[in-house]
Amino acid sequence: MQLERRHPVPPGAPAATVARRFLDDRRRRRAVGYAVAVLGPVLLGLALLVTDRPVEMVSGAWLLAFVAVAAWLGGLGPALASIASCTALLVTWLLTDGDHALDGRGLSGLVAFLVVAAGAAALTASTEAARARAQRAHDDLVRSRSHLDRLAQLGGVGVISGDEHAVREANDAFLGMVGASREQLERGELRWRDLVPPQEGADDQAAFRELLRDGSTRPGHLELLHADGHRVPVLVAGALLERRPLRWVCFVADLAARREAEERLRGSEQRYRSLVEATGAIVWHLDAKGRTRVSSVHGWEDFTGRPRLDGLGPGWLESFHPDDRRAVGEGWRHGMAQGRAFEVTARLWHGPSDDHRWVVLRGVPVDDGTAADEAPGAATDEADREATEPTPGATGREWVGTVEDVHDVRQAQHAAAESAALLDTLLRDAPIGFAFVDRDLRFRVLNATIAELSGGRVEDLVGRPAADTVPGLAGAAEALMRGVIASGEPVLGLELRGASAFGAPTDRDWLINFYPVRDHSGEVAGLGVTLIDLTERSRLEAAVREAEAVRATAALAERLEEAQRIARTGSWEWDVRTNELTWSREMYRLYGLPVGGPNPPLATGTGHIHPDDLPRVLAQYEQLASTPPTAERGFAFEHRLLLPDGAQRDVAVSGEVVVGPDGRTRTIRGTSQDVTEQRQAERALRRARDELLQAEVRRQQEHRTIEALQRAAIPGQLPAVPGFELAATYDPAGVEQDVGGDWYDVLLLDDRHLLCVVGDVSGHGLDAATIMVQLRNALRAYVVDGAGPGESLAALNRLLERLGTGSFATAVVAVLDTATGEVRWSHAGHPPMLRFGPDSVTVLDEQAAGGPLLGVVPDATYAEDTFVLAAGEGLLAFTDGLVERRGEHIDRGLERLADTLWSLTVGAAAASGATDAGTGGDHHAGHRPLSSVCHELAAALFAGEVRQDDVCQLVLRRRPAPPRRHVSSRDETGRDDTVRDDDEEGTCPEAPAATSGA
Fold first, then answer.
1. What is the DSSP string of 852-906?
2. pTM for the predicted model, two decimal places
3. Which residue has the higher pLDDT, 604 or 535?
């Protein structure tokens, strides 16, 4: 069935196709082979029954065919089984039948049959085994090729291969990483060294050496240059396929998404830490192995005074109240077993207060997997269910939770519930009336008592003017109510007499109280009205009403205290007339004093003020108390506190001045808020800003120092060389860029040999400038000591390697024989020099001379090359900043440089020479000064662009020979007077040398 599912036979297929599909399975072929092996002895037995010549039957071809078919289908086993069965059957028949005993010919036939049958079976079985092995090898090859194709098509993983010149094969994932196209790959324009930034060159060279040495490289982090200029972080691993010719393969994994994910993960962790630090609850974490830790600053041991929760071993429930331990244990077990969030409210021991406090224990599973079959510590029988001590072990999932102190909230809620229930009962069943009247003096809320006293119903009175209920209110009482709304001062104990609008016309005595009701903004939203029927109620009931109102006010005050504690803001009131100071509970905590003590005197509040701030604060209070207040009654200032434990806090004080009827200050009330954290953050911000400014100043100073060091290392004036013109320029990238390691040097070695050097040290800053100076001085010493260009570069390579700075450098060194014009030169990974003449510009062959970068390959050698500068020819040496562009091959930059140099020298000379030819110009026509050529060359190459690297140029030119002048005249005697002006050496007269354009 499995074979048929993998290889379904289409309906109507030929019988041969059906048979082939059926026999493709090895087990079926073996079964059919054994069936054929059984068929052979059966046919032999039938032959023995119907013939008298058994030996001839045994040696028949049809029996050999059966053996061969059995071997082909099932292998050697079924064939040997067929042979053995036939032989045993024949021998048994002969031994049991005397009339057919074996004679000599029959025995020979039997032996011949056995030999032939065994050989045929073995040959057929070996052929089938070879075919099966070949088929398996073919299937393995197909699977391997499929795996390689799938590997090359993996998204996010680049697969490339190449040789020593370029990348030859790459999948779409890699081309997308570097922003290259398939056409560039096919044209051979994609080179590995162009994709690696110069800063990564040292690591790339080290990996290349490891590849050549070990045949593979370990995975390493690297950054590649994208076509648009940005860098792509990748993980690279490579293997060597062939050494000669060089063939390699690399796997490149894009790490940009991973880096972004790590950044997001770090941000999430930081936000989680901040959230944990900000919460007032105990945060705990239980991992899958049962290990527990408390991750908040408000730790378990700080709250309970007991050891840490780490490990969560037996005994952790002892911190809970004995009456609550069973509920906590069952809630914990049930939550762990179900794998769902759980919450238990219980009393936990509180060490600082030496009593139990109400807390809420919450737990939430981190993963969303299914619940375990049995949570660790869960009850397995009735005896276990009676236990109250859960033992959390490896739960198979992680849990996080909190232990939140809700004691004060629970107490407040309990008190509020009691107060609300009492107030509801009071409003509903009170023998006095309660009502709320809006600013239009209409009833909005009232109880049934007022409705009964008015002779109507509650629903009939809501929205009606209060004066309609008691006609007497339309007079003086209505004016008083409007006065209360306007002034905010209550009117209490107002006694009125009148008849209700809906009841009997008899007059009744009323005791009414009006008091303002303010909204959250402090504005008067309406009036609270209490009404007592003095004719039916006693004044004792009025006293009860007032007592209940005081209780409700006390509950509201307690909630206000809790809100102040959360906001770290305390309220206070200073009665200027009696010099009494009233503090809220948070004020005691703010000043580090025991909560609940008597109202402190003013000296207590000022006694904790910082000595440096005390005179200013006392003067502020004195001014508020003595100076008649103006329209601006509010005030605000800050000062510092010195607490009894030595801690210092910043406090922001704000409030207002309340005046009495006489216009003088009666009360000063306000709030004090702990703003220590805010002020500390502001001070830290100022310090950070100052440090940043100082760092910028130091950076600019270091930049000027490095630039001065580099300019001091570059020759200030080029030597005067007879017959030659020299010029050099050095242009840094810009003020905001770090100074690089570009340099040049020109030195007269003796009266006829001139040393010319241009080099570039990797990196920027003080280190690059220091290495540059060392290389320059060392090269001078090597050449003066007699070393040629190749030998001096090899010595510099050894020197840079021994310095151990990890930097590398490039350089081109040329020694000019000023008498013959011969130039010996070599380079170390540096861009090749340009040779220009009166009619051409040529890039020197960098393969003819030179070697690898300095500091990369130990004991490297550098070949030399020699050529002769003819009269009028020159050399241009430069650093890579003149030709390199991001995302562009250096060959393109060399072509652009050669074209520009041709236009400034050959083309300009041709145009100028043509002009001078018509005017009788001299031999210098068209040859502009080399210093202007350097500046115009840089300006033309970087027209409209911002240079990203330093540029250094060194150019020299052999002066052309002056033309010979020949003047002949004959005097009267026939004598020929000839005047010749020839330069016998073939060089022009000595001219002043050009100076550096740096």
1. S-BTTSTT---B-EEEEPPTT-EEEEE-GGGT--TTS-HHHHHHHHHHHHHIIII
2. 0.36
3. 535
